[in-house]
Specification:
alpha/beta
C-alpha cells in the first residue's frame, strides 16, 4: 500500500502521504483527499438521481437550471483540458499519474452531475431548486481549488513565460473557479414558492390551476415513492413531509396519507393476480371463463361455459398457492439475494474487528492496514444496514400485494359462489378468512426467507466451531438434534390447539353476530344473561386452547434458551473424553460460538410455527375458493320460446336447497329440505302474477329459483332480458349502512324527479326502475292497511304497471287485480288460474307465505323497520346524512390510562412478579458474562508468568469475550504452550461456577416464561369479560347508531390482538429493555469513557424516535379506522347477496370493496415505510459510531496510547448496542401500536351508553298480578335532536282487557312497546304496571315479567328447544303442547324433533310462529303482539288468534295490527296519530263514528 502511494505521489515509502510540505499543504495530500474524494462523493450522489422519471406534464424548468447544467458540462471540459498541459509539463507541478487521476475523476464527476441535473430538471424537481444536498456537495472541492491557487501565487509560476504549461494550467484553474461561482449563483435564483422538494406533489398543470390568486392551494394527493431518486429511495427522504405532518399532528384522515405507488395499487395487483389465475386454469384444459374467480356473473359480459362438471374440475385444479407463486413469486424469491448478501456482510464485521485489534496489538503492521480495516468496517456495516433495510422494505411491498390479492379474491368469490354452496360456511367464518387467515398468510411471507437463512447462519457457525474443537462439536450437535423431535411434538400440540381455538373463535364471532342482529329481541326477552353465558362458554373453550398454546410456547422458549448451556457442557465433556486438555481459551471460544447459535435456534421454532399456521389458513381459504359458483349459463336456457311476449318460462324444472357438492353424497330422503318442482310455468310480459300458498309451501323458493339462487336438478328455465337482472324486494329488508338515498338509489345516478316518484310510490322498497321483471316477496306484510293500499295502487299497479311482476303475498284482498294466481303447496304448483278461481280456495286452504330464507345478520335497522319507513322518508328530504356516527380516531399518544388498564387486568402483584423474574433472569445472564471476563483476565495474568511461545499473535482476552471474530481462526498455538500444573483444577472451578450461574439463569427463564403467559392470559380474560358485560348492558340506541362491523371488530380483531399479538410483542419489548439496561451496566462498568459517545447518541436517538412515534401512532390508528369499513361492507354484502346478484350490482360492489381496501392499504403502507425510515436512520447512527471508534483506535495506535482489548470491547458493544436500541424502539412502538387494541376495547368498556341498572323498588314474585297498565303523559324521543316519537300519551288498559293498536306507519305504535319495555328511556311522564312505576323496577325484572311477540322473527342458531326455552324451564310435554297450539308440530317433527338444529328449513312465517310459541310459554300477565302474524296466511292467522284468545283469556293483551280483522274483536281500539292518542274506544263505536280515523282505515282496507 505504502509503495503504491509513494509511486503515485513520488514520495518516500516511509512517509508516502505527507500532509505539510515546505510550509503549505502537501500537493499529493491535497489532490487525493481534498480533490479526488469530494469528487467521488459528488459523483456517487449525482448518479443516484440518474433514474429520476420525467413528470407527465411538459414542465418548464425554473430559471437557473439551464445555467447549472451548462456550467457542469463546461467544468467537465475544463478538467479534461487540464490533463493536456499536465502531461506535457511532466513533473512540473506533480507526478503525471496523480494529475491524470485527479483530473479524470473530476471530469467524469461533472459529466455525471450535468446528466443528473438534466434528469432532475425534466422531473417534478424542475419547479424547485432541486435537492439541496446535491447543490451543497458541489462546494466540497472548493478548498482544493483555493489551496492550489494560493500555491501558484506563492511560487510565482502563475504568469511566468518560462513555464507555459504552468501558466495555462493556472488560467484553466481560474476558469474552473469562475464556473463554480456561476454554478453557485444560479443555484440561488429565486423559485416560485418552495414546495417539499422530495415529495412528488402536483403536476405542473394542477400547480397552475390551484395557485391562482385568492384560491387556497388544495392538498394534492401525493404519490408515494414513484419518481424518486435512488438516494431518496434508500434513505426515504420522500417520507419526510409525511413524517413532519405526523409530528405536527396533521394526519387526521386517510386522505392525508400518500397515494400508493402504481405497482401496489389494488387494481394493478388484482389484475395481475386474476391474469395468473386464468393462465393456471387454461393450463388445466378448461375454458378460462368457467374458472372460479374470473367467471363473470353476467355483469354484461358474455361468458360461455362447458357443462358444470368441467367448471368444477377447474375450481379443484387451480391451487391458490400456485397462483400467488406465479403472480408474485419472481419478485418474492429474488429478494432472497438481498437477504443472503446482508447475512454475509453481517459476518464481515466481527472478522474485520478481529483484524483491527490484532493490528493494534502487533505494533508492527503498517498504518495503511489499520486504515483499510477501519474503512472495511465502515463499508461492511454501511452496506449491511442498507441491504437489510431494503430487504425489509421490499418484503413489506410484496406482503401488501399478497394481502390485496387475497382479500379481493375472497370478496370476489363470495359474490360469485352459489347460495346453496355458501351455506356451508357461517358469516363469521367467511369474515375470518378475510381477517385472521389472510393476516397469517401475509406473516408467512415475512418468515419464509428466515426458513432458509437461519439454517445457513447455523451451518457457518458450526463450521467455525469445528475449526475450534474438532469432532467434539458433534456431541453438542447430537444433543441439539435430539431436541428437534421434542420441539416437533410441542409444535404439533400447538397446531392442534390453534385449530381448535380458531373453531371456538369462529363460533364465538358467529354468536356475537347473532347477538348483535337480534339485540332488540334479546332485550325484549331479557335474555342478555343467557347469551352472555353462551358467549362466555365459547370464550372459555377458546381461552382453554389459548392457555395450552401459551404454556407450550413457554416450554418451547425455555428449551431453546437453555440449549446453549447444555450444548456447551456436552461439547466440553466430549472434548475431555477424547483425551484433550481443556484450556480456558478453548472453553471461552466454544462458548462464544455456541452463543452465536442462539439466534438461529431461537427464531426457528417461531418461523416453523408461523409456517404451519399459514398452511392451515391456506387450506381454509382454498376450501372456500373451491366452492361451486353460480353458473348462470348452465342454469338458464339462452334460446327463448317462439312466443316473444314471454317474460319467464319454466319447464319440468326441479330445484333444491342442497349444494351441488352434497348432491351426490346425500341420502335419498333428506329430512327438512324442501324440493321445488315446476312442471310448466309461463309468464307473459307486463302481467301481474300473484303467488299464494300456506306458510312454508315454497313461495320464496320459487323466487329464489327464478334468480338462480337454488341448485337446479333438471329442466329448463328461461328469462327474457337476463343481463338486466331483476327488481327484487326481499322479504327480510336488506339495508346497507349508509344514507337513505344511497340505499334507494343502489348505485344509480340521482334523478330528482324519478327519485321523488319512487319514494312516494313505495315507501322504501328497493330502487324500482329500469328492470323488466320484478320479484316482490311480500312487501305488504310489515305495513299497515293504509300503506299497503298505497304501495299496491301507486307502485305495483302504478309506477310498475307496464313491467312483469311476480308478487308473493297472503294479503289476498290485494290480489283481486292480479292477471293470474298460482297456488303453491309443498314445493309444487297445485293450481293456476284467475283470482276469481283461486281466491275462494285460498280462504279455506291455508295461504301464502315465504320459505327458506337464511337468517341474515341485517345491517342494524332504525327503530324497528316500522318507524324507519315513515320517519326516514321525512328525514331523507331534509338531510341526506348518515344516521350512524363516524368511528372516532383517538389523537396523540396512547394514554397512560390504557397501560394502567392493562396493568390492572394482569393484576398488580402478578405484574410486579413478572418484572422481578425478568430482572433476575437478566442479572444472572450478565453475571455469567462478567464471570467469563474475570476468568479470562486471570488466565492472561497466568499466561504472562509462564513463558509462551506463540506462532501467531494471540487475540486479546477481552476481545475473545465479545467478538465472534477472535473465534474464526483456530488457535493452535495454545496447545503447544506449557500448562501450569493447577490449570485443570482452575478450569474445573471456573466451569462449576459458570455452570451454577447458567443453571440459575435457566431457572429464572422458565419462571418468567410461565408467569408471563399466565399474566397475559389473565388480562385477555378480564378484558373480554368487561367488554362483553358492557355490550350486554348497552342501550338499544347504541346498537342502532353503530355498525355491526365496528362492534364485531372489537370482539374479533382487537381481541385477537389482546389474546395473541400483544403478549408476543410485549414479551420482546420487555426482554429488549432489560437486555439494554444490562448492557449499559456492563459497558459503563468496564469502559467508563464510552459514556462520551453514548450521551450525544442518546439525545439523537431520543429526538428521532419521538419524531417517528408520533407519525407511526397516527398511521396505525388510521389503519384501524379504515379496516372496519372493509369488514362492515363484507358482512353487508353477504347478508344482501341475493339482492346484489339479482340487481346485477356485483361489479359495483367489487369496485367498492377495492376502494375501501385501497384506502386501508395506503395507511398500512405508510405505517410500514415509517418503520423503515426510522430503521435506516438508527442504523446509520450505528455505522457512524463504529467508524468513529475505529478511527480513534487508529489515532491512539499511532500515538502509542490505549488498550487494544478495551477498543475491541468498545467496538463489539458499539455493534450490538445499535441493533439493540433499534430493536428497543421498534418493539416499544409495536407494543404501543398493539396497545391501540386495548385502547379500543377500553373505549367500549367505559364510553358505551348503558341502560340504567339500578333497582329502586322491590316487587313481588308474581308482579304484575292483575295486568293493569297506565300511560301517564308519556313523552319519548329516540335520540336528542330528533322529534318526539311519543308526545304526551295517556291511556289506561284494564286487567284482562284486549287492546288493539292501529295507526299509519310511523304514528308511534311500536314506540309504545319500546317505552313499556324501557328500550328507550322516557323524557317525561310515567308508565304504571299494577300501580308500580316501571322506571323504578330493575330492567331485567321488568322485561322478564312482560311477554312480547316482536315484529322481527329472530331465531338464533341452535336447536328448536334452545330457541323456545333458552333457560331450560319447561318439560318436553309442555313444549310439544305449545308447538301444537301454534301449528308447528308437523314442521318440527319433519325436521327431527325438539333437539334438531334450526337450519334454513323454516320459512319467515314459521319463524314467527316459533316466536309466538315462546310468548305462550311465559306466564306473563301482559302480552304485547307487534304485527306478529304479518307473515302468516289468513287461515293460520285465524287459528292463532283463537289460540291467543284461549291461552291469554285472563291476561292483558296489546296487539299492533295491520290486518284490521285481527283486532275487530278486541275490547277497545287505540288509534295513534303522530305520536299522540287520536281515538280510544270499542271497535264497534269507532267504526260507526263518522269521520273517525278508524273508520277511514277500515274503508281503505275494504277498497
Amino acid at each position: 500500500m505504502e509503495s503504491i502511494l509513494a509511486g503515485l505521489c513520488g514520495t518516500s515509502p516511509e512517509d508516502p502521504l505527507p500532509v505539510w510540505v515546505h510550509g503549505s499543504v502537501g500537493h499529493c495530500f491535497n489532490q487525493l483527499t481534498l480533490n479526488v474524494i469530494p469528487h467521488v462523493i459528488l459523483a456517487v450522489v449525482s448518479a443516484c438521481f440518474l433514474g429520476t422519471p420525467r413528470s407527465g406534464s411538459g414542465v418548464p424548468c425554473r430559471s437557473g437550471w439551464g445555467c447549472r447544467i451548462a456550467t457542469s458540462f463546461v467544468l467537465a471540459g475544463l478538467f479534461l483540458a487540464d490533463t493536456i498541459p499536465a502531461t506535457i509539463s511532466q513533473q512540473e507541478l506533480g507526478p503525471v499519474y496523480l494529475e491524470v487521476l485527479a483530473n479524470g475523476t473530476a471530469a467524469l464527476t461533472w459529466l455525471v452531475h450535468g446528466l443528473a441535473l438534466l434528469m432532475l430538471c425534466r422531473s417534478t424537481h424542475g419547479l424547485t431548486r432541486g435537492p439541496l444536498a446535491l447543490a451543497l456537495l458541489t462546494l466540497l472541492p472548493l478548498p482544493s481549488f483555493i489551496i492550489t491557487l494560493v500555491w501558484y501565487c506563492q511560487s510565482g509560476t502563475a504568469w511566468s513565460p518560462s513555464h507555459p504549461a504552468a501558466s495555462s494550467r493556472f488560467a484553466i484553474l481560474c476558469l474552473q473557479l469562475a464556473s463554480l461561482l456561476a454554478y453557485v449563483v444560479s443555484c440561488l435564483f429565486p423559485t416560485a414558492g418552495r414546495q417539499d422538494f422530495l415529495s412528488i406533489n402536483s403536476s405542473w398543470q394542477q400547480d397552475q390551476l390551484t395557485s391562482e390568486p385568492g384560491i387556497p392551494l388544495l392538498d394534492e394527493q401525493t404519490v408515494a415513492e414513484d419518481g424518486e431518486s435512488w438516494l431518496s429511495r434508500f434513505f426515504y427522504f420522500w417520507m419526510n413531509p409525511l413524517m413532519k405532518r405526523g409530528y405536527q399532528g396533521k394526519l387526521n384522515q386517510p386522505q392525508d396519507v400518500y397515494v400508493l405507488p402504481c405497482q401496489l395499487q389494488a387494481a394493478t395487483v388484482c389484475d395481475r393476480f386474476y391474469f395468473c389465475w386464468q393462465k393456471k386454469a387454461a393450463l388445466h384444459h378448461v375454458e378460462e371463463e368457467t374458472v372460479s374467480l374470473t367467471s363473470p356473473v353476467l355483469a354484461g359480459s358474455d361468458g360461455s361455459s362447458n357443462a358444470p362438471d368441467s367448471s368444477r374440475c377447474a375450481q379443484k385444479a387451480v391451487r391458490l398457492f400456485s397462483v400467488l407463486h406465479a403472480a408474485f413469486g419472481l419478485r418474492f424469491y429474488s429478494l432472497g439475494l438481498l437477504k443472503l448478501a446482508g447475512n454475509l456482510l453481517g459476518f464481515s464485521g466481527p472478522l474485520l474487528l478481529n483484524l483491527l485489534v490484532n493490528f493494534m496489538e502487533s505494533r508492527q503492521e503498517p498504518l495503511s492496514h489499520g486504515v483499510l480495516y477501519a474503512l472495511g468496517l465502515f463499508a461492511g456495516s454501511f452496506l449491511s444496514a442498507l441491504l437489510r433495510n431494503q430487504f425489509s422494505y421490499e418484503m413489506n411491498k410484496v406482503t401488501l400485494m399478497v394481502r390485496a390479492a387475497l382479500i379481493s379474491a375472497i370478496y370476489r368469490k363470495a359474490l360469485r359462489v352459489s347460495s346453496t354452496s355458501l351455506s356451508r360456511f357461517t358469516v363469521g367464518e367467511i369474515v375470518n378468512f378475510m381477517s385472521t387467515d389472510t393476516d397469517r398468510l401475509v406473516n408467512f411471507c415475512l418468515s419464509f426467507h428466515e426458513v432458509w437463512s437461519l439454517p445457513f447462519q447455523f451451518a457457518i457457525t458450526l463450521y467455525l466451531l469445528y475449526q475450534q474443537v474438532g469432532v467434539a462439536f458433534l456431541g453438542g450437535l447430537t444433543l441439539s438434534l435430539l431436541l428437534v423431535p421434542i420441539n416437533k411434538i410441542l409444535a404439533n400440540y400447538i397446531m392442534m390447539n390453534s385449530k381448535e381455538m380458531l373453531k371456538h373463535k369462529d363460533t364465538r364471532v358467529k354468536l356475537m353476530t347473532e347477538f348483535l342482529s337480534g339485540i332488540r329481541v334479546i332485550k325484549y326477552y331479557a335474555w342478555e344473561k343467557h347469551f352472555g353465558t353462551r358467549i362466555n362458554a365459547c370464550r372459555a373453550k377458546e381461552l382453554q386452547k389459548l392457555r395450552a398454546m401459551s404454556y407450550l410456547d413457554a416450554v418451547c422458549v425455555y428449551l431453546w434458551a437453555a440449549l446453549p448451556v447444555v450444548i456447551s457442557i456436552a461439547i466440553f465433556v466430549t472434548y475431555a473424553l477424547l483425551g484433550h486438555q481443556l484450556t480456558a481459551t478453548k472453553v471461552f471460544t466454544a462458548l462464544a460460538l455456541v452463543g452465536m447459535l442462539i439466534l438461529p435456534l431461537n427464531s426457528f421454532p417461531w418461523v416453523l410455527y408461523g409456517t404451519l399456521e399459514a398452511k392451515v389458513s391456506l387450506d381454509r381459504i382454498q376450501r372456500f375458493l373451491e366452492l361451486m359458483d353460480q353458473d348462470l349459463e348452465a342454469y338458464y336456457a339462452l334460446d327463448g320460446p317462439s312466443d316473444t311476449a314471454t317474460a319467464m318460462e319454466m319447464r319440468c324444472a326441479a330445484f333444491s336447497w342442497v349444494p351441488v357438492e352434497e348432491e351426490s353424497t346425500r341420502q335419498p330422503l333428506s329430512t327438512g329440505t324442501l324440493q321445488l318442482h315446476i312442471e310448466d310455468l309461463s309468464v307473459r310480459k307486463g302481467m301481474l302474477l300473484g303467488v299464494v300458498g300456506k306458510v312454508g309451501s315454497g313461495k320464496s323458493s320459487l323466487l329464489a329459483a327464478i334468480t338462480g339462487e337454488l341448485t337446479k336438478q333438471g329442466g329448463r328455465v328461461y328469462i327474457c332480458d337476463l343481463e338486466q337482472g331483476f327488481g327484487l324486494a326481499t322479504q327480510e329488508p336488506w339495508i346497507q349502512f349508509t344514507t337513505i338515498r344511497e340505499n334507494i338509489l343502489f348505485g344509480r345516478e340521482y334523478d330528482a324527479r324519478l327519485y321523488e316518484e319512487v319514494v312516494e310510490a313505495c315507501a322504501l322498497s328497493e330502487d324500482l326502475n329500469e328492470k323488466e321483471l320484478y320479484l316482490l316477496d311480500d312487501p305488504l306484510a310489515a305495513v299497515d292497511a293504509d300503506v299497503a293500499n298505497h304501495i299496491m295502487q301507486k307502485c305495483i299497479l302504478g309506477v310498475l304497471k307496464h313491467k312483469t311482476r311476480i308478487l308473493c303475498t297472503h294479503r289476498t284482498e290485494f290480489l283481486e287485480k292480479a292477471d293470474a294466481l298460482l297456488l303453491i303447496d309443498n314445493g309444487r304448483i297445485v293450481k293456476t288460474g284467475t283470482p276469481a278461481d283461486i281466491l275462494p280456495l285460498v280462504e279455506a286452504f291455508p295461504k301464502c307465505k315465504d320459505m327458506d330464507k337464511k337468517q341474515k345478520d341485517k345491517a342494524p335497522n332504525e327503530q324497528g323497520q316500522e318507524e324507519a319507513i315513515e320517519t326516514e322518508k321525512e328525514e331523507s328530504t331534509q338531510n341526506n346524512n348518515l344516521i350512524h356516527k363516524e368511528e372516532e380516531k383517538k389523537e396523540g399518544a396512547v394514554a397512560f390510562q390504557v397501560y394502567k388498564a392493562y396493568w390492572l387486568a394482569v393484576g398488580t402483584w402478578l405484574a410486579l412478579s413478572i418484572l422481578f423474574s425478568l430482572l433476575l433472569m437478566q442479572a444472572s445472564r450478565n453475571i455469567s458474562d462478567w464471570w467469563l471476563s474475570y476468568w479470562i483476565s486471570s488466565i492472561s495474568q497466568t499466561a504472562n508468568t509462564s513463558v509462551m511461545i506463540c506462532s501467531a499473535p494471540l487475540p486479546s482476552p477481552e476481545l475473545l469475550l465479545f467478538s465472534v471474530a477472535g473465534l474464526v481462526f483456530p488457535i493452535q498455538a495454545l496447545d503447544t504452550t506449557p500448562v501450569p500444573s493447577n490449570g485443570s483444577v482452575d478450569v474445573n472451578f471456573y466451569l462449576i461456577v459458570y455452570g451454577s450461574i447458567a443453571g440459575a439463569n435457566s431457572l429464572f427463564t422458565i419462571l418468567r416464561a410461565f408467569l408471563f403467559a399466565y399474566g397475559t392470559l389473565r388480562a385477555a380474560t378480564v378484558i373480554h369479560n368487561r367488554l362483553l358485560q358492557r355490550a350486554l348492558k348497552a342501550t338499544v340506541t347504541f346498537f342502532d347508531t353503530t355498525p355491526t362491523g365496528r362492534i364485531l371488530n372489537r370482539f374479533s380483531s382487537d381481541l385477537n390482538c389482546v389474546d395473541e399479538s400483544l403478549p408476543f410483542v410485549l414479551n420482546i419489548f420487555l426482554a429488549n429493555m432489560y437486555g439494554f439496561l444490562g448492557i449499559l451496566v456492563i459497558i459503563t462498568y468496564g469502559l467508563p469513557w464510552i459514556g462520551l459517545v453514548l450521551l450525544p447518541l442518546a439525545v439523537l436517538y431520543f429526538s428521532i424516535q419521538r419524531y417517528y412515534r408520533h407519525t407511526s401512532r397516527e398511521l396505525k390508528r388510521l389503519y384501524s379506522v379504515t379496516l372496519s369499513p372493509i369488514y362492515t361492507h363484507f358482512s353487508e354484502t353477504l347478508s344482501g347477496l341475493n339482492s346484489i346478484r339479482a340487481m346485477r350490482a356485483t361489479q359495483r360492489f367489487e369496485l367498492e370493496n377495492q376502494l375501501r381496501l385501497e384506502q386501508n392499504q395506503r395507511c398500512l403502507f405508510a405505517s410500514n415505510t415509517a418503520m423503515e425510515w426510522l430503521d435506516i436512520r438508527l442504523q446509520m447512527i450505528g455505522v457512524a459510531v463504529v467508524t468513529a471508534i475505529a478511527g480513534i483506535a487508529i489515532i491512539e495506535h499511532q500515538k502509542q496510547l490505549g488498550n487494544p482489548g478495551l477498543v475491541g470491547l468498545a467496538l463489539s458493544y458499539a455493534l450490538s448496542v445499535t441493533s439493540l436500541l433499534s430493536g428497543l424502539i421498534s418493539s416499544f412502538t409495536h407494543t404501543e401500536i398493539m396497545m391501540v387494541s386495548v385502547e379500543r376495547t377500553e373505549e367500549y368498556t367505559t364510553d358505551i351508553p348503558m341502560e340504567p341498572q339500578d333497582r329502586l323498588v322491590q316487587v313481588a314474585a308474581d308482579w304484575p298480578s292483575q295486568g293493569l297498565l297506565e300511560f301517564q303523559e308519556v313523552v319519548l324521543a329516540y335520540r336528542a335532536g330528533l322529534p318526539n316519537a311519543l308526545d304526551g300519551v295517556s291511556f289506561t288498559v284494564y286487567p284482562g282487557e284486549k287492546l288493539g293498536i292501529v295507526g299509519r306507519t310511523g304514528s308511534g305504535k311500536s314506540t309504545l312497546f319500546l317505552a313499556l319495555f324501557r328500550m328507550v328511556e322516557l323524557k317525561s311522564g310515567r308508565i304504571l304496571l299494577d300501580g308500580v312505576d316501571s322506571q323504578l323496577v330493575g330492567l331485567e325484572e321488568l322485561r322478564s315479567r312482560l311477554a312480547i311477540i316482536p315484529q322481527d322473527p329472530f331465531l338464533f342458531s341452535g336447536s328448536i328447544r334452545e330457541n323456545l326455552d333458552p333457560q331450560g324451564k319447561w318439560t318436553d310435554a309442555e313444549l310439544h303442547e305449545v308447538l301444537e297450539q301454534c301449528h308447528l308440530q308437523d314442521a318440527v317433527t319433519h325436521m327431527g324433533g325438539l333437539d334438531s338444529e334450526l337450519g334454513k328449513s323454516l320459512s319467515v312465517g314459521q319463524r314467527q310462529l316459533v316466536c309466538l310459541a315462546r310468548a305462550l310459554l311465559t306466564q306473563a300477565k301482559v302480552l304485547c303482539i307487534d304485527e306478529a302474524t304479518a307473515s302468516v296466511d289468513q287461515r293460520t292467522d285465524q287459528l292463532l288468534q283463537q289460540t291467543i284468545r284461549q291461552r291469554f283469556a285472563d291476561k292483558t293483551v296489546l296487539t299492533i295490527a295491520h290486518r284490521l280483522n285481527t283486532i275487530l274483536d278486541s275490547d277497545r281500539v287505540l288509534v295513534m296519530q303522530a305520536g299522540r292518542v287520536a281515538e280510544l274506544d270499542s271497535p264497534t263505536r269507532l267504526s260507526q263514528k263518522d269521520g273517525s280515523l278508524f273508520q277511514h282505515l277500515l274503508h281503505s282496507r275494504q277498497q
